[in-house]
Each structure stands twice: as structure tokens, then as C-alpha cells.
Target: DUF4252 domain-containing protein
Amino acid sequence: MKSIIIALALLATSLTGWAQTINDVFKKFKEMENVTYVNIPKSVVGMALKSAGKDTVANWADKIDAIQILSLEEASVSTKQLFNAEVKKLDTSGYEDMIKVNSEGEKVRILTKGTEKIINSLIIFAIDENDCALVKIDGRIAPDDVNAIVDNQTRN
Model:
């Protein structure tokens, strides 16, 4: 009985070792060859969004603290395959699926973390056979703002 409990404890420990956070994925891939990593701080986000001229976008300027973007468009096939494998092992506890699309070889998943009234973190995965991208937006965003952008993009 004692050996079974020890084995289960070791199994649980090893399984949690496989799980990784969003930040772990950024750290692992941002230095890889032909992977583009961009970290945009609040001051730059604010300037860029306010100068965009569109009210919908400009309203986000004070709500976003930072944006991180990881693009694997130019990365090797093996790097993209590794990215897909790492995303599958991702620990998304604390996040909720907002959108999950699998259409014509393209997979898009949007996860949110926060409350009913405020989203503190928005994660976007976009994966197809030629490109992989990961976007993380931190801030204090109203869910209605995200829905408005998604509705606008799906209509066009």
C-alpha cells in the first residue's frame, strides 16, 4: 500500500512537471532561429493605439498594460512542430476558452483570465500548416470590448 501511494505521488509530480505556463512558451521560443518575438510596453501600446484613429481601437489604449507577440512564420517545420507540442502541454488552469475554431486546417483559440467584468489576460493562439502565432495581452479589458473586435473581424 505504501509503495502505491509513493508511486501515485511521483506520478502526480511528474505530470505537473510537463505542464507549462504561457510565459514558459514565450521564454522557450523567443530566442529560437527565425522566430519573431515582440514585447510592447504600456507606453508604446498607448501611443500606437491612440494614433490609429479608430475609436474602437483607441478605447483600448488605457486598458492595455503590455502585449507580447511570438510569430513562427519564418521558423523551420521542426520548430513549428515543437511549438504545437508545447501548446498542447500548456497549463491553462485559471483561463477560460472564449473562442475555439478549427476550420480548414487553421486553429484559433482565445483564452481569457479575469472576472465577468474585467479580463486581466487575453491569450490568442493561431496555428495553421504555414504559420504559428501566440499573442498575450495583459491589462484591464472589458469583455464587451473584446466581443466588439471579434464581431467586427468576423463580419469582414
Notes: Helices lie at 2-18, 22-29, 42-51, 55-58, 77-88, 143-155. The CA atoms of residues 22 and 90 lie 7 Å apart.
